[in-house]
Predict the 3D structure of the following.
Amino acid sequence: MGLIIDTSIIIALERGKVSTKQWSHYDQAYISPIVLTELLIGVDRVNNENKRIKCLAFIEYVKSLFTILPFGIEKVYTYARIFMIYTHNV
C-alpha cells in the first residue's frame, strides 16, 4: 500500500519536524503535482538568493524521495509560472 504526502507534511519535513522514517513502512510514498507546484510557488516568493537556492535543492530532494503522481512535470512548472503572474497582477 502507498501513501500520498501533502504539502504540510513536506514543509514539516523541511523544518525537521517529521522524518521520512514515519512513512517508511509503506510500500511507496507519493506527492501530487500540486504539492510540487506549491513548493515552486514558495520558492518564487523567497527574496533571499541563498535561501532560494536551499529551497530549490530541497525540492530536488523531495523529487528524489517521492513518486510524483501522473500529471506532467512540465505542466506543474507552467502552472506555477501562470499562478505567480496571476497573483502579481491581481
